[in-house]
Amino acid sequence: MEFNVAQLMKEATGARREYALDDEIAELDDGLTPSSNLTGKLELLRIHSGVLASGDLRVTLSLQCGRCLEAVTNDVRVRFAESFRPLTDVQTGRFLPPEEFEGQTEDLTDEALLIDAQHILDITEVVRQNIWLSVPIVAACDYVDPASGIPDQDACPKFMGLLSETDLAGEEGDEATAEGAGIDPRWQSLLALQNELTSD
Hints:
Elements: E1 2-4, H1 6-10, E2 16-23, E3 38-47, E4 50-64, E5 71-86, H2 105-108, E6 114-115, E7 120-122, H3 124-134, H4 157-172, H5 175-180, H6 188-199
Parallel strand pairs: 5-6
Antiparallel strand pairs: 1-7, 2-3, 3-4, 4-5
């Protein structure tokens, strides 16, 4: 996701470029599992201190349901607006120190927000960080209430099934029955803890 902005940097403030993105991002971050390309629009706007990059992007990610722990897919919308400053003057090639720009020191020295000496603006790190910010805190299975037709992420059917199986096992007081009922092995330690607390 690199863009040569040499010509844009030579133009007056307010000049812009627009791009339609359709990028494969499987290698973007080991913690992310995309199941689609990153698509959307990117606008680069010439501002007095460099280039303002604004994106409105979408990607489908494979996540883990926070309730039943099964794999689910989530459509994530990624929106950002970041100011990138040039490392060198496009006309003379002179190095431009951060002191020549207005803004906070951490932003002016952030390598992810620099236009390099070859006038390449790279939005990869900005996109990666904003995808993480857009991921839901707790992903959930898509479930539509059959009575109302309204999506309800609080009613994960697999999780509700696990709960009812655990309740039945607790009523019978027989851990072997619970194991035979098809309890997910990832829940076994919690079930054992529940039995210990109940016996105390």
